[in-house]
Design a protein that fits this description.
By secondary structure, this protein is of the alpha/beta class. Helices cover about 45% and strands about 10% of the residues.
Amino acid sequence: MKIDELRILLSECFFYRAFEDEISRLAQRGETPGLVHLSRGAEVFEAALMTALDLSVDHMTGSHRSHVLALASGADPVAVAGEILGRNCGLSGGVAGTQHLLSYDTGFLCSNGIVGAQVPIAAGAALSAKINKTGGIGVAVMGDGATNQGAVLETMNMAVSLDLPLFFIVENNGFAQSTTTSNAGGAVSVVARARGFGLVADQTDGSEVRAFYPVLMRLIDYVRSQQKPAFLEVSVPRLGGHYEGDGEIYRTQTPLIDPLDLLSDLADQAEIEGISDIQSMAEHKALSAIQTALKSPKAEPNAKS
């Protein structure tokens, strides 16, 4: 990754972290309707993922934990904040909420509150791209818990059977809500399970951009050039509970490494100047977007986007 690309990635990740930190504070004050699931710990991977896609033709779906994916796709931050906060300025007029973000114009088809339900939708996008010969691909981002869902396993089988240009991405943070991945999925790794369907599959560390970016680019190129599906398991930390306010009594006290700290260290090693200024500007942008959204009227139950 070039110096300019690294600088932009760092700025974006500072923005996403500041955005969600403020959403966290608002959630604690009761300003966010429903439970809020934050992406803290996955920002670096998700931001880099978007730089590797062509969102003029590619289409993505995400899980209930998709604030950063929507933002990184290019969705208006005020509209994203408005949707999370239940305001009229939201992506869907504030009536869909934090788990159901939609930004068709930027290639982000939807997030979904039903575990794994976003994956077949991405398969539909992949099938459409194949039929219409757009050169685009479908991307389904899910958590490790979704790999035990029947709809996900059926979609893996269908993607192989139909040669769909579909990229399955599993963000494995070690927990399906409060259940550890090993307890939920037995001894078989999700990569081994994917390979059992005939998928080209790999695993990488989503905390370190130098580790995951070449793997990510290679698999995206495979899906696009070969018009066949692929699967990537990405290890990321979940820097917080399953939802904002989760007591996390199931956690051990093992400290987690923050990928944003690693990215900042990498930028420092690359002698990128003004890192503190980059962070300050990103934080100001995030707070400004959220404050603007808070000025919008609260959504009404019969509101239309």
